[in-house]
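batch job 7 of whatever, protein = YceI family protein
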Amino acid sequence: MRNFMSLIALVFLTVSSIAQSEWKVDPYHSSLNFNIAHSGISLVNGKFLDYTGNLKKDGEALDNAKFDFTVQVKSIDTSVEARDKHLRSADFFEVEKYPEMKFKSTKILATGKPDHYLLYGDLTIKDVTKPVIFDVKYGGTVKSDKGEKLGLKAKTTINRFDYNIKFDPSAAGVGKDVNIVVHMQFAK
């Protein structure tokens, strides 16, 4: 009986390790975007150009997926170089002192709607780590001669003051809520 149980455990571990797949962000087909209110009348859009990300999952769905991302903050791009330089300064991100933003998932839950999930995790900006929840729309996977790809869209809103990005909005009309929209394609 003991040998039989050991055999069952070995089979289970083997099947589990085969079923788990690892994916890396495909930067050519992904984008990490944000927008924030300006002067109370418009939005400023921006993105980060340099980031890496990994995904580990079991099976076809995202039920047990684990995500982690690292963003090089100096890669911020709002299409206005003077503004980007200001965003890199101590008024905002302090990129010399805090060069990276990080996200590490803690759990993911299906919402009951097809291909929709809530992705829970810890977001670190500057010297602050706080829990966030992303609303995720899973686009599925496709296979081609270039390999297997997986797509998703994730969005959330954070309060920049929670992360010590405290440039006074009353002076410049910069909003506190930052809307984040991530379009990701992963390669297996």
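notes: Residues 9-18 have pLDDT under 50 and may be disordered.
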